[in-house]
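anyone seen this seq b4? input:
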Amino acid sequence: MTHKPSPQMKWNSEHLLEMLAHQYVRSALKRGLLQRQPCEVCGEAETDAHHDDYDQPRKVRWLCRRHHQQHHAERRKA
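predicted toks r here
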């Protein structure tokens, strides 16, 4: 019987650089090397780390979920 990879495993294998950047952020937050900041647009305290350049995993922008999704939607249109 062949095991079908989960959607997350498939995404990880197709987006290695992005996955490593996300792992860096999780680890840095846990170790206290990076501190979550409020959304740079609206000041919301609950935020996601956003990478403009996955080659620079330490350089993140903090965006609330709404503004993070809005940012990606605008980039898809361009």
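Residues 16-31 form the longest helix (16 residues). The chain has three helices and two strands. kinda curious what u guys think
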